[in-house]
Amino acid sequence: xxxxxxxxxxxxxxxxxxxxxxxxxxxxxxxxxxxxxxxxxxxxxxxxxxxxxxxxxxxxxxxxxxxxxxxxxxxxxxxxxxxxxxxxxxxxxxxxxxxxxxxxxxxxxxxxxxxxxxxxxxxxxxxxxxxxxxxxxxxxxxxxxxxxxxxxxxxxxxxxxxxxxxxxxxxxxxxxxxxxxxxxxxxxxxxxxxxxxxxxxxxxxxxxxxxxxxxxxxxxxxxxxxxxxxxxxxxxxxxxxxxxxxxxxxxxxxxxxxxxxxxxxxxxxxxxxxxxxxxxxxxxxxxxxxxxxxxxxxxxxxxxxxxxxxxxxxxxxxxxxxxxxxxxxxxxxxxxxxxxxxxxxxxxxxxxxxxxxxxxxxxxxxxxxxxxxxxxxxxxxxxxxxxxxxxxxxxxxxxxxxxxxxxxxxxxxxxxxxxxxxxxxxxxxxxxxxxxxxxxxxxxxxxxxxxxxxxxxxxxxxxxxxxxxxxxxxxxxxxxxxxxxxxxxxxxxxxxxxxxxxxxxxxxxxxxxxxxxxxxxxxxxx
Length: 526
What we know:
Layout: H1 2-17, H2 22-64, H3 75-90, E1 96-97, E2 106-112, E3 115-118, H4 123-126, E4 133-145, E5 156-168, E6 172-179, H5 190-198, H6 261-267, H7 273-295, E7 299-306, E8 310-314, H8 332-343, H9 376-385, E9 400-407, E10 411-414, E11 418-421, H10 425-432, E12 437-443, H11 453-464, H12 470-479, E13 498-501, H13 507-519, E14 523-524
Parallel strand pairs: 6-7, 6-9, 9-12, 12-13
Antiparallel strand pairs: 1-4, 2-3, 2-4, 4-5, 5-14, 7-8, 10-11
Helix pairs in contact: 2-3, 7-8, 7-13, 10-12
């Protein structure tokens, strides 16, 4: 017996010292937790996929309550639509437990000017109300069934989320400020530019540069006065106003009036940018009439032009002390009639609003004003003088205010000395300080159009090419934040009310697009 006990002790000590089977034992013991860890990862992944689909359902439900159609219906209908949308997209999802009748698991709220309401418990308060401003919030909390973790009595994982959507059917006052300076009398097409230059080859700038791309108005169309003094030298080679008038005899100066470059363009049948701006205004108002009816909103429009000064065009009277009498017209058909009467069927009448200038673009013949014919300062300060002290919230008694600026953006004004270049950002800050939105349609000032020696030195080289300083200033005004490079870092923001049109571009489509961007208020916010 003693020997047997000794042998048993020896075998046990040998077994305890043996290491060759430890790996197998460790693996065997590890299989169970590894299996559960893998299974729980699968359960978690399934829960996240389910939550992603529920997030999409919540987004769709929130947005369904603020669509263009929903905003014309009662708050109660919006709540019912959002609830129905979420239930339709969440019902039947595999592994989901979510009781949509339980407010702890699905809650949809609607907020308007009068307060916040639970869609499930405030049906009576919501049923007959139509709101111009509406926020829908959809919040859910459900359970995703586990397969592997259920063995450990972790039977579900929580899935939850929330989505918010906001919309506003705003009553908006649109103030259109149209650049009618000489530089806007540029042919609207590439072929038109070429034709204009080709037909003015007799005009030179003294440095060998021939031809003029602009269809400039000229108040004085006599190349010489009775004393032989040079007047409109830039039209000396243009055709006579009266072709059959006799030529002067002897040493008498040729004082016969000649057509200016505007007449050259018209005789060539060219479409100018100002023509297209007039057509674009009519297109915008037509779109406003349709959109106003569809949205159940009130839109009012005022039209002004600017060159060296600001001119109110329509309506012809108003004030800023009474919302009912602002410098805008709620009868859009009246505004459309004005636009069409001014421009005619082809918009060419709008070009007649461009002020005729004298030799060297003097506003008063013989008086040198340094060609300061485009005052963006006058444009902005004039527009602000005819706008409310503060833009409103979108109600009928407090309409939103949007200033549309249609311009090539090249400033040339007398303001503490001659000022050339881009729109000053300080002017845009004055607009923003009054809670007024800015929309900019840039009719690009082409570097190639600045072809004479003075324009190359003073306009093209410092402001257009190789560095574009005009577009960043206009974009900054619309964006409400100053940038100094072009294109903007990261590209243009689609939410900024800015559009650039160059030669051969569709100004009407661009302006209508800007208008639709301004009135489209629905957006997903969370």
